[in-house]
């Protein structure tokens, strides 16, 4: 079956690829298994050097990779260039990590140490929003500790992952990273495959729970980074002029198509109109268009399904009486474009508030007391990230303590760093990514207990 990769800015076909059948899946896993046996025998220093070479090669291929990302994902070229640069930097960071044996006891009776060893073949399933970066997040820690990977990118954005795998295999061992293409008809058998030892998945909570059940049938390890509906709480002490741009950028990063974006903005009533107006001014200044065009700051929604979902949320909020601030689009755009849209004071039961929008729309809701706002800010299902904005003090610290998300940012949002653990609570995830904690997720523990 053919997969047509669509440019979301033009709706034209960017690339046509063949999907993977079950024989192809078996072949890919078998190749990765052979590569694993070669790769695991490399010393840590050899793997580090190889991955550093991969990072260098990513930078050499940066112009091509960035253009691929724009063509299949839609983000403006400067943001695509940032994604490629981040992929190289994240690769270098993972290459630099070291897992040394942990000595538990060294006494007259015994010497006990804990070693970490690779699992085998890892299954990676990646989304369409940050396709290159998230592939690197999945693949590089797995390779660093000696695993091989079979990755299934989103069928909407597979081309950059194919290029990434080519680069990796050129600088490590043949077939170390295999790419399979398709939807659930290939994703489910990948997770079920007897030679897959771990699943790492980034995507929706519903799909993540389904894949986790499949993995659990064979007690396979799983790391899941799932949906979020992050709340940002702006206190009365916040300086609107100082925070407005950062609030906007962390809410509309990648056209709002980022798991850790600020997705619900609660603002103390004393600052509500000032911040709403400041955000509206910034939204009106965005240049919406094809990401390859000079000066464009805001690209399309990535696909028709997501466009329809976001559009429906905006229209429903408008029909319910909320004030919707939506800048006009330039004439002549044919893609899945929605300008950065603000929804003022929507009811908390509307989908634009209670569901993850994953697109360029931000509900802004006033509150009078922090005790009141916490009743709505803490989500029953999601707990990926949250933030509080204001001056240091007891009130800000109280909000930090109350938020139950995996990450709480203060006067910031959506910042992820390679050395800082990241993961969601509740239905927003399982396990953790990044840093040493993330690296451990790709290993199995071995305790060596030597009698003396």
TrEMBL record:
Species of origin: Maribrevibacterium harenarium
Keywords linked to the UniProt accession: Oxidoreductase
Alphabetical list of InterPro entries matching this protein: Ald_DH/histidinol_DH, Ald_DH_C, Ald_DH_CS_CYS, Ald_DH_CS_GLU, Ald_DH_N, Aldehyde_DH_dom, LUC3-like
Family as reported in the entry's similarity comment: Belongs to the aldehyde dehydrogenase family.
Keyword tRNA processing in annotation: no
PROSITE patterns registered for this protein in UniProt: ALDEHYDE_DEHYDR_CYS, ALDEHYDE_DEHYDR_GLU
Lineage: superkingdom: Bacteria
Matching SUPFAM superfamilies: ALDH-like
Domain Aldehyde dehydrogenase, first and last residues per copy: 2-448
Pfam families: Aldedh
Residues annotated as catalytic: 225
GO molecular function ontology, one term from the record: oxidoreductase activity, acting on the aldehyde or oxo group of donors, NAD or NADP as acceptor
UniProt keyword Transmembrane, yes or no: no
Protein name per its UniProtKB record: Aldehyde dehydrogenase family protein
